[in-house]
Specification:
The radius of gyration is 19 Å and the shape is globular. The strands form 2 sheets. The chain has a 6-stranded parallel sheet, with helices on both faces. It has a 3-stranded antiparallel sheet with strand order 7-8-9, covered by helices on one side. By secondary structure, it is α/β, with parallel strands linked by helices. Helix 6 crosses helix 7 and helix 9 packs antiparallel against helix 10. It contains 10 helices and 9 strands. The structure holds pantoate. Pantoate (PAF) binds next to strand 2 and helix 6. The site of pantoate has 10 residues, from strand 2 and helix 6.
C-alpha cells in the first residue's frame, strides 16, 4: 500500500488504474480504525479492483465544544491495519491540502431537510462540515463507489442526498454496523469509556431492540420513545433523542402508516456522546 498526502499524487495513482479500466472503491475515514472500518474496506474490496482509504480528522465537522483536539490519531497503526486489509492507496491530506483557503471560511455544501433534526439539531453545522469535506474528497478521489457505515445513519442519508442532488458520478454503498460482544456499536469514541461505562453502554443496543420489538407489536410510537428514554436514564445515560422515524427521510410518521422505519438513539455517558440505530423494515 502506498500513502500519499497530496491531491496531485493521489490523482496520478488513480489515473493509472482508470486508464487500465480498473474500478475504484473509496472508504473515507477520520482514522483510529477499528473492526467497523475494516468491514468497510472488506466491502470495498468486493466492489472494485482498487481500494482507496482516506484518513483526515475534519475540523469543520466538530463544534467548538466537541472533541476535535482529543480525537484519537493513530496513523502508524492505521497504516499497518490497512496494509493487512489489502487497501491499495491511503490518502492522508493535511488541513491546507483539503482547505486551500483555510478551514475557517471554506466553500460549504449545505444539505437541507435531512440535516434539520436529530444530530443536525444537536450538533449545529456538523452535517455541513461532513457534506463539505465529503464533496471535496469525492472531487479528489475519482471513485466508482463510496463505502459508508450504517452506524452513522443520518450521515448516510445526508451523503446519499448530496450525491443524488448534485449528480455526483459515484454509488454510495452502506455496510451494516459492527458491534462489540455486548452489542455496543464499534466507534472510535468507545475508547473514551472506562470498563464500567462500556458495560453500561450495552443498554443502547438493548433499547433499540426493545423499540423495534415494541413497534412490531403495535405499541404507539410516543410510548415506545418514552419507554426508551426511561430505560437509558435508568442505566445512567442522558439521551439527546430516542426515536422511531421513517427510514428514508427521518421524518416522523404517524402510527399505522406502512413504511420502513428506523429506531435511533443518541445519548451521553459521562462526557462521551454515543449514537446507534436499528432498521425496522416494513412488514407486508
Ligand atoms: O464518518 C466519518 O468518519 C466522517 O464523518 C467522514 C465521512 C470521514 C467525513 O469526515
Amino acid at each position: 500500500m502506498q500513502t500519499v498526502s497530496t491531491v496531485m499524487a493521489l490523482r496520478e495513482h488513480i489515473g493509472v488504474w482508470r486508464r487500465a479500466g480498473e474500478r475504484v472503491a473509496f472508504v473515507p475515514t477520520m482514522g483510529n480504525l477499528h473492526a467497523g472500518h475494516y468491514a468497510l474496506i472488506a466491502r470495498a474490496r468486493e466492489l472494485a479492483e482498487r481500494v482507496v482509504a482516506s484518513v483526515f480528522v475534519n475540523p469543520t465537522q466538530f463544534g467548538p465544544n466537541e472533541d476535535f483536539s482529543r480525537y484519537p490519531r493513530t496513523l502508524a497503526e492505521d497504516q499497518r491495519g490497512l496494509e493487512t486489509a489489502a487497501c491499495d492507496l491511503l490518502f492522508t491530506p493535511d488541513v491546507s491540502e483539503m482547505y486551500p483557503y483555510g478551514a475557517s471560511a471554506p466553500v460549504q455544501v449545505v444539505v437541507p431537510i435531512v440535516t434539520e433534526d436529530l444530530d443536525g439539531a444537536a450538533r449545529p453545522g456538523h452535517f455541513t462540515g461532513v457534506a463539505s469535506v465529503v464533496t471535496r474528497l469525492f472531487n479528489m478521489v475519482d471513485a466508482d463507489f463510496g463505502v459508508f457505515g450504517q452506524k452513522d445513519y443520518q450521515q448516510l442519508l445526508v451523503i446519499r442526498r448530496l450525491v443524488r442532488d448534485l449528480a455526483m458520478p459515484i454509488e454510495i454503498v452502506a455496510v451494516p454496523t459492527v458491534r462489540e460482544a455486548n452489542g455496543l456499536a464499534m466507534s472510535s469514541r468507545n475508547q473514551y469509556l472506562d470498563a464500567g461505562q462500556r458495560e453500561r453502554a450495552r443498554v443502547i443496543y438493548a433499547t433499540l431492540q426493545s423499540m423495534a420489538a415494541a413497534f412490531r407489536a403495535g405499541q404507539p410510537i410516543a410510548s415506545i420513545e418514552s419507554d426508551a428514554d426511561r430505560a437509558l436514564r435508568a442505566a445512567g445515560l442522558v439521551p439527546d433523542y430516542a426515536v422511531v422515524r421513517d427510514a428514508d427521510d427521518l421524518h416522523e410518521r404517524p402510527d399505522g402508516v406502512p413504511a420502513d422505519r428506523v429506531a435511533l438513539i443518541a445519548a451521553r455517558l459521562g462526557s462521551t456522546r454515543l449514537i446507534d440505530n436499528l432498521l425496522i423494515p416494513k412488514t407486508d
